[in-house]
Amino acid sequence: MFNQERLMHYQVEPSWNYFMRLKTMEEDQMERIMRLVSQSAVVIFSISSCCMCHAMKSLFCGMGVNAMVHEVDEDPKGKEMERALM
C-alpha cells in the first residue's frame, strides 16, 4: 500500500578494528603483473624453452629495445601468473 523505497542496511562489526578482504590468487597475480609492467616500457613474459619467445626477444633486442624479460617458467608462481595472463 505504501510506495516507499526500501533500503537495506548492513551493520558489520570489525575484527581487530580493521576490515580485511582476502585476495584471490588471480587478483594477487594480476597485481604482481601490473607491478612488473609498470617498471619498464616493454615487458616480455616468456617461457625459456619456447622458440617463438626466443625469436621475439631476439627481434626486440635487434631493434635496440631494452625490454624487461620475465621468464614465467622460472618463477615459483609462474603457473598462476600464466593463468592470469591468459
UniProtKB/TrEMBL annotation:
KW Cytoplasm (keyword) present: yes
GO cellular component terms given for this protein: cytoplasm
Chief location category: cytoplasm
Intracellular or extracellular location(s): Cytoplasm
Residue runs in coiled coils: none
Superkingdom: Eukaryota
Swiss-Prot/TrEMBL keywords: Cytoplasm, Redox-active center, Transferase
Annotated Pfam families: Glutaredoxin
InterPro entries listed in its UniProt record: GlrX-like_pln_2 (IPR011905), Glutaredoxin (IPR002109), Thioredoxin-like_sf (IPR036249)
Glutaredoxin domain mapped to chain residues: 42-80
SUPFAM superfamilies: Thioredoxin-like (SSF52833)
A GO term for molecular function: transferase activity
The UniProt record lists the keyword S-adenosyl-L-methionine: no
PANTHER family reported in the protein's UniProt record: GLUTAREDOXIN
Annotated family: Belongs to the glutaredoxin family. CC-type subfamily.
Protein name in UniProt: N-hydroxycinnamoyl/benzoyltransferase
